[in-house]
Amino acid sequence: MNARIVVGIEQTSAGERALAWAARRAAQFHRGLLIVSVVGGALGVVGEKQVLADTERLTEDWLSAEAERLRATGLSVEHAVFHGDPVSQLTAASADEEMLVIGSDYRGPDEGPARGVHGIRIASAAKVPVVVVPDRDVAEGTGVVVGVDGSPVSEAAIRFAAAEADRLGEPLIAVTVWTPITTHHRNSIVYPELYIESLEKAAQETLAVSLAGLSQDYPDLEIRREVRRGYPSAVINGLAADARLAVVGSRGRGAFARFLLGSISHEVLTHLRTATAVVR
């Protein structure tokens, strides 16, 4: 039996969007769906037991209704209510499944960064790819964008993105970003032309090596190569704005460390422009 798509939801608009995204993918790729909600926040105070019981009952009724609605469309759907910390519970529930889908409260460039921390912690802890869906209407874009930096986790992201693009019949847009050394001097430094050319050439080589052999595995896949100067998360999200899916690796850092400095996946998730998968 194929592994299922697990979707962790709350009764919010972000949860609704995550469930809708997961249901579409389950229908398209003939996957089962497991809908999960986590009841947390218990402190052990007097009177709490009844509150938890009522919350569990209402959550169970809600999930049951959602599962029944989706079964009516032909999907295989199960649901479960768990207790405790959402990060550990969703990580455990999805450990042996195909992927985990969650919602984000991010609503667009004019709304500031995502405010919740659970999504970023879940994406960091999960053992399977995590798809984070923004809380806004995502236009039907074109292509699957993947960030490439030459690291092992970047290679995993490329494999995931290529498989998704191939199944969706979408082009794969592979992007490597190069960033000159940041200067904090009052007067701007003029970078030597040879230095800039070397950075760009190194980025091109990294991208070429990372994509080598991909056309043999996916002969019908259109691959678009992008080498850009800038900051990785900004460039990736800029391309993702018009894409169907974006894919980033978690904790990626290759031989050319400045291609992906810091937690780029974290920064992408706080300003994500489309459904975004985090792969380790």
TrEMBL record:
Q: Which residues form the UspA domain?
A: 1-134, 144-280
Coiled-coil-forming residues are: none
Q: Does the keyword Nucleotide-binding apply?
A: yes
Which InterPro entries does the protein's record reference?
A: Rossmann-like_a/b/a_fold, Universal_stress_UspA, UspA
Q: Which UniProt keywords apply?
A: ATP-binding, Nucleotide-binding
Q: Is-annotated flag, keyword ATP-binding? A: yes
Pfam families assigned: Usp
Entry GO MF terms: ATP binding
Q: Which PANTHER family match?
A: STRESS RESPONSE PROTEIN NHAX, UNIVERSAL STRESS PROTEIN RV2623
Family the entry assigns: Belongs to the universal stress protein A family.
Q: What's the protein here called?
A: Nucleotide-binding universal stress UspA family protein
Q: What organism does the record attribute this protein to?
A: Microbacterium ginsengiterrae
